[in-house]
Write a structure and sequence with these properties.
By secondary structure, the chain is of the alpha/beta class. The chain has 9 helices and 10 strands. Helices cover 39% and strands 24% of the residues. It binds adenosine-5'-triphosphate. Belongs to the ABC transporter superfamily.
Length: 247
């Protein structure tokens, strides 16, 4: 589904990604873990086209997308959530989702801009998205009044409204209470199943990693230390030394 080969990224004299290669299969959940500063977010930015790599290639469903912009990658099916949720703070839950659905409709129809008015089918769809992220009871609440967990889930809903094929999530449960975290894990497992999604995520919480991941890649100082299932990773001596040993 998504593959990258020999990705290098420097910030000035600092080498942040040093030859990263990976291959994520369709409907797989692939998690990138590693200590702070390992390069996980930078790798996500390169894969989603937010920043260019210095060298290396990225392919998506067999197409070389290395030189495509982030928005062109969204058109091809990339959905992305961030460490700090990006929502429209003054707009309600419903409006945030409607705006995403309208954007998706415009993308498909290439039609003229329509008034932002949650009527008819789009409103029904938005309510359905809100239900999927457990926010159907907060449709009229402005996003700025939502709890941290609800804001992260709203961002997930906005991303789902764009009907991605691959969902890239940067620390989807960071800063959440245990109950919020469990609710979010359940939602991710559900939507993955219902929408046949391929998922890539970064995560520090090993409990979340174990519940969501099919395979895990461990990074340290911009390099891949190991790739495998959770038990394979746990048995890897280099990983124990470099990462899990720190816990
Ligand atoms: P965390 O788990 O803390 O989010 P990470 O593994 O996602 O860390 P990155 O955010 O990718 O790590 O950062 C990797 C390295 O690159 C760090 O040393 C960071 O300071 C550096 N870095 C990231 N963005 C920039 C930038 N725009 N300019 C210069 N250095 C940067």
């Amino acid at each position: 589904m998504i593959e990258c080969t020999n990705i290098y990224k420097n910030y000035g004299a600092i080498s942040v990604l040093k030859g990263i290669s990976l291959n994520v299969a369709e409907q797989e959940t692939f998690t990138v873990i590693g200590p702070n500063g390992a390069g996980k977010t930078t790798l996500f930015k390169v894969l989603t086209g937010e920043i260019p790599a210095n060298s290396g290639t990225v392919t998506f469903k067999g197409e070389d997308i290395t030189r495509l912009s982030a928005s062109a990658r969204v058109h091809r099916g990339f959905g992305r959530t961030f460490q700090v949720a990006r929502v429209l703070p003054s707009n309600s839950v419903l409006e945030n989702i409607v705006i995403a659905l309208e954007a998706r409709a415009r993308q498909i129809e290439r039609g003229p801009l329509r008034q932002l008015r949650p009527t008819g089918r789009i409103k029904d769809e938005a309510v359905e998205v809100a239900r999927r992220i457990s926010l159907a009871n907060k449709l009229d609440v402005p996003a700025r009044f939502l709890s941290h967990g609800d804001r992260k889930r709203l961002e997930l809903g906005i991303t789902l409204a764009l009907k991605p094929k691959i969902l890239m999530m940067d620390e989807p449960t960071a800063g959440m209470s245990p109950s919020d975290r469990n609710a979010t894990i359940d939602i991710i497992l559900h939507v993955k199943d219902e929408d046949c999604l391929t998922i890539m995520l970064t995560e520090h919480d090993m409990d979340v990693v174990s519940q969501l991941s099919d395979r895990i890649m461990v990074m340290n100082y911009g390099e891949t230390i190991a790739v495998g299932t959770l038990s394979e990773i746990r048995e890897n001596a280099a990983v124990r030394d470099i990462y899990l040993g720190e816990e």
